[in-house]
Design brief:
With 88 residues, the chain is mostly helical. The chain is built from two helices and two strands. The longest helix has 21 residues. The two termini are 24 Å apart.
């Protein structure tokens, strides 16, 4: 998982986080043993309510300010490393 997340972990960190992840997965397995037959499916326990702000026109940042702290740019866009190669 560390490789997928592109994390540079030490061997000690890999061991520690591996143990923690295993513990979480064991706990999730225990939840499968709960009897939920009489529990109705629920999407949320919170009241449904939209919280929206007024849509107001305001000034935007200039392209130079937006890209100013980017480590790499090209032709007015952020330049990011390729994550997925073409598998064809």
């Amino acid at each position: 998982m560390a490789n997928l997340a592109q994390l540079d972990l030490t061997e000690d960190e890999k061991k520690q986080f591996g143990e923690q992840l295993s513990s979480i997965l064991r706990y999730a397995e225990r939840l499968q043993d709960l009897d939920t037959d009489d529990i109705l499916p629920t999407a949320t326990v919170l009241p449904l309510e939209n919280v929206l702000r007024p849509d107001e026109v305001s000034r935007s940042l200039s392209l130079e300010k937006v890209l100013g702290n980017a480590p790499a740019t090209r032709d007015g866009s952020f330049l990011v490393p390729v994550i997925l190669e073409d598998q064809a």
